Amino acid sequence: MNRDRIFLSLAHMGGQEQKFIKEAFDTNWVVPLGPNVDAFEKALEAFVGENRHVVALSAGTAAIHLGMVMAGVEAGDEVICQSFTFSASANPILYQGATPVFVDSEESTWNMSPELLEKAILDRKAETGKYPKAIVPVHLYGMPSKLDEILAIAGKYGITVIEDAAEAIGSEYKGRKCGTFGKYGALSFNGNKMITTSGGGALVCGTAEEAQRIKFFATQARENRPYYYHEHIGYNYRMSNICAGIGRGQMEVLDAHIARRREIHALYTSLLADTDGIEVKQNPSKDFDSNFWLTCITVDPEKTGTTADEIRLHLESENIESRLLWRPMHMQPIFEKYPFYGDGTSERIFNVGLCLPSGSLLTDGQIGDVAEEIKRCCKR
Ligand SMILES: *Cc1c(COP(=O)(O)O)cnc(C)c1O
Q1: Which atom of ligand 1 is nearest to the CA of 64?
Q2: What sign results for the dihedral spanned by CA atoms 144, 149, 150, 152?
Q3: What's the pLDDT at 33?
Q4: Domain boundaries defined on the chain
Q5: Which CATH architecture has domain 255-379?
């Protein structure tokens, strides 16, 4: 077996990144703010639209954390979080000393179930006497969650929504970009995301005042006095001008990267269409337009005679990287003691799902090879 390794999702440079980094060096802006940061934020604002403001930060996790800070989440509060996600959606709840309450997914999007969300809100109110402080829906693998329903429920009980759009830059729900629906929306530019700044993130918000406040918390919460004076806990979460240079270059190819990921998803869909028992996850309706950051399949063991993990191991033996789905948070040792409202949906999907190589650098030939090897596992 001498195939070059096929990776799940690799960084993919556009070409202009080094020019912006060189500018930063030439002008000695090698600090956590500067012209690249400003320009990257402007480009992100133009991209997400809706007159939203964007603050560039050191990580997507930092963005979610500052969303919590802005929402006023503190010790003694509860925060509802989608269980089917990466741990970075939930960790910032604990950074604030608050208690996570996990809510299960529904089948059509794999994201937060609106029914279980409302059940959780009412049950927490009955048990603790107060409503949860915030809700964190996630757009898993790029698929928008059921935003109309979730926002309606959040509005009904006056609860702040912090969208985790770390995997969903460019995804659209009813024609509007993910990350712009909640009071706050978190984006990630980690190495394997749709675009990268080597590591980084951003928080989307509604007003210039909020953006100012987020920058204040992200730069150590220093009050406007001639000496260092602090009335709040601060963080060192601002994006560096070097990383933002990479981000500026990546913005020039963002649309192309999204288009290529969607093309790869369409290619897998057609290549695996006649394989009984393998389903490629699709947009549930025209309202949902995933960026298909990662193409995911589910494997029916009865029909295929194999499992998601057996396929993963076979692909690995062929030098192809794939990954099981995120193991839900209510099934994680660190989180299993917290309240969970579920009906088994995310656990069931977790048990049969697999993420396929989906990076925008992959060729049609490589996608064909992956599909071929998956078919080879079925009914051998
Ligand atoms: C990547 C990711 C994050 C965290 O982003 P970082 O930039 O890696 O800190 C948060 N939530 C989800 C769902 C993610 O996939």
Answers
A1: 10
A2: positive
A3: 82
A4: 17-252, 255-379
A5: Alpha-Beta Complex (3.90)
Q: What is the pLDDT of residue 380?
A: 62
Q: Using one digit for the tens of pLDDT, what is the confidence trace for 16-51?
A: 999 999 999 999 988 888 899 999 999 999 999 999
17-252, what's its fold? Aspartate Aminotransferase; domain 2 (3.40.640)
Nearest-CA residue for ligand 1 atom 7 is 60
Find the residues whose C-beta lies inside 6 A of ligand 1: 59-61, 85-86, 88-89, 138, 164, 166-167, 188, 190, 201
Can you give the pTM of this predicted structure? 0.97
Give the mutation target among 85, 164, 178 for probing the ligand 1 site: most ligand atoms within 8 A of CB. Answer: 164
Q: Which sign does the torsion angle of CA 165, 169, 171, 172 carry?
A: positive
Name the residue with the closest Cα to ligand 1, atom 10.
88
Cα–Cα distance for residue pair 186/209, rounded to 1 Å: 18
pLDDT at 2 over 80: no
